[in-house]
């Protein structure tokens, strides 16, 4: 089918202890991957900026004839641990709705690893942060390979141009 170039953005939740039902203290880590074809990245960023605005008149971010009040109150960092204000919450909600409905600009993969069930012997005799890095790196590579091959298997060549943390600064 040809070639595709991808940018991959990743983030992780480091070891969380989860208690639920009849299970005590399971330790989990999560790896989240956002895969964006290079030729669609500008369109994706523009769409996310427009969703950030929140103006019911569906204006485009940065193209209002005069700066509307939505721009000022919604021009802030959005992080899942800092959703304390309703403005941040609604930005996150609009973005999640966008990602759930979009089928052309983004592909996601989330891998949860139950550390409680792992046999640590498979990761050598390291301990502490070195052991965590070995585990993380093994599963990170697997998550990248699995997601890229699953979503883009019809392409002859897949090129990953950027592989990094999710750090996108909006103008």
Low-confidence stretches: 166-171
Tell me the β content: 25-35%
The first-to-last residue Cα distance is 35 Å
Number of helices: 4
Structural class: alpha+beta
H-E order: EEHHHEHE
The helicity comes to: 25-40%
Computed Rg: 19 Å
Major β-sheet annotation: 4 strands, mixed
Q: Topology, pairings included?
A:
Elements: E1 3-20, E2 23-37, H1 41-53, H2 69-74, H3 86-101, E3 107-114, H4 128-151, E4 157-165
Parallel strand pairs: 1-4
Antiparallel strand pairs: 1-2, 2-3
Helix pairs in contact: 1-3
Organism: Capillibacterium thermochitinicola
Protein name: DUF3800 domain-containing protein
Structure description:
The chain is an alpha+beta fold. The protein has helices spanning 41-53, 69-74, 86-101, 128-151, and strands at residues 3-20, 23-37, 107-114, 157-165. A hairpin with a 2-residue loop joins strand 1 and strand 2. Helix 1 runs antiparallel to helix 3 (86-101). The two termini are 35 Å apart. The model is unreliable at 166-171 (pLDDT under 50). This is DUF3800 domain-containing protein. It comes from Capillibacterium thermochitinicola.
